[in-house]
Amino acid sequence: MTPTDQTPENHVPQHWLEGILDILKEAVEGGAPGQGTAFVDGTAAGGDSNHGLLATLDSLSAAQASRDVHGTSIVGHARHTAFHLEVMVRWEQAGDRGPFDWKGSFLPAQVDDAGWDEVRVRVRAAYDALMAFARTQQDRPDGDLTGGLTGTVAHVAYHLGAIRQLVKAVS
């Protein structure tokens, strides 16, 4: 159902968790082909022009992703983003409060082709694990997960933006 289809007679309220996960999905997977988006560039009806994190990473070679741009690289941002998603699940599911090596999570910042494939698989796996875990929390009576998930959305969106700016320098 699109927002224009929602009249008072047929409006079904969205669960808070689904609303947050929809925005996280847009940041990571991009927009639905031919549909409007909340904040990333729209994805064309044919599925091209997808500017979510996964499609952005998939559009780059290992050499491009490894290129140093003012002391950082796309590989570093991708590794760090995967690490953050993994920590979010550990934090919420297992109560693991660290310590976490946030600085080290950006390293190594350069990879070969096989290493780049591994980084992209790790990002996807970390995202899938977080989504699967979060969906088990819909009946949770409190909103403790709200802060963690909204922080994750902001964090992923920040790194998506940083990566998209770095793409301009390496393309």
UniProtKB/TrEMBL annotation:
Q: Which domain of life is it from?
A: Bacteria
Q: Which InterPro entries match?
A: DinB/YfiT-like
**What is the name of this protein?**
DinB family protein
Say which species the protein is native to.
Deinococcus aerophilus
User: In the record, what lineage is assigned to the organism producing the protein?
Assistant: Bacteria, Thermotogati, Deinococcota, Deinococci, Deinococcales
